[in-house]
Specification:
Blueprint lengths: L16 E3 L5 E3 L4 E2 L10 E2 L4 E2 L13 E2 L5 E3 L13 H4 E3 L4 E2 L9 E2 L29 E5 L7 E5 L2 H45 L8 H17 L1 E3 L5 E4 L8
Length: 250
């Protein structure tokens, strides 16, 4: 049991803080947290590759800042990480051959030729010895210089043959497409010509004479006139029968 005031200590019973150097409460350092006020220290630490936005964190859920070490770069294309299910290799990716990154929390790798101690980085090595090296790379591959990293080489697929095949393939598609378009245009022209001839012919055909209603009314008068003249014609204009005009002298 305590017998003196000197036995009393500050426990810093608030979440997110712990006892500091001067026996005063101080916030948990960045990358750590304290959930329970009964704890004396900020014993909670963020998963490797993550940290907190600042000091005084109270839960692991505050560990949402990606914190990649050197030789790796931050993958900025991914969403905010979940601390309870964090994939370190996905968020902190290694540099490819011919590139390295000596500083932490960077988003791009630097060419090995620009790094002073490049020999200390596994990625700053060549896979083959140069364009004249025809034995190191396996069949179907050739030794080429890494783009963007002068002086470093790797084996790449020799696609010179497949490239020409692809070229022929695309040319064939282009020729077929042009042929189809030409045929379609010719067919359209032929259809238009046939249609135009029919329309033109119908316009040139003489219109059928219409029978006027007055023709039927004039027929009796015409018949009397023809009787006087000596003949009567039928409806088609042929002589139907002779007409004898009576002699007034008898």
């Amino acid at each position: 049991a305590s017998t003196s005031y000197d036995d009393c200590v500050n426990t810093c019973d608030k979440p997110g803080e712990q006892l500091g150097k001067d026996e005063e409460c101080a916030p948990c350092a960045r990358g750590t947290y304290k959930e329970d006020g009964a704890q004396l220290k900020c014993d909670g630490t963020c998963p490797y590759g993550l940290t907190t936005a600042g000091d005084g964190s109270t839960s692991m859920s505050d560990c949402t800042i990606v914190n990649c070490p050197e030789r790796r770069i931050v993958n900025t294309s991914l969403p905010t990480p979940d601390p309870s299910n964090f994939n370190f290799n996905a968020y902190c990716t290694l540099c490819s051959r011919g590139f390295a990154q000596p500083a932490p929390n960077q988003t791009e790798c630097a060419p090995c030729k620009d790094i002073r101690d490049a020999a200390n980085y596994p990625s700053c090595t060549s896979e083959c010895d140069g364009p004249d090296d025809t034995t190191t790379c396996k069949d179907g591959f050739k030794c080429t210089e890494i783009m963007g990293s002068k002086g470093y080489y790797e084996c790449t697929k020799n696609d010179s043959d497949t490239g020409s095949k692809h070229t022929i393939h695309w040319w064939a598609i282009a020729i077929i497409a042009v042929g189809v378009i030409v045929v379609a245009v010719v067919i359209a022209i032929l259809i238009w010509c046939c249609y135009s001839r029919r329309v033109f012919s119908s316009l040139q055909k003489p219109a059928k004479a219409e029978r006027r209603p007055t023709d039927e009314l004039d027929q009796p008068a015409r018949r009397i006139t023809m009787m006087i003249s000596g003949t009567v014609e039928d409806a088609e204009g042929n002589d139907e029968y002779p007409t004898v005009i009576p002699n007034s002298s008898h």
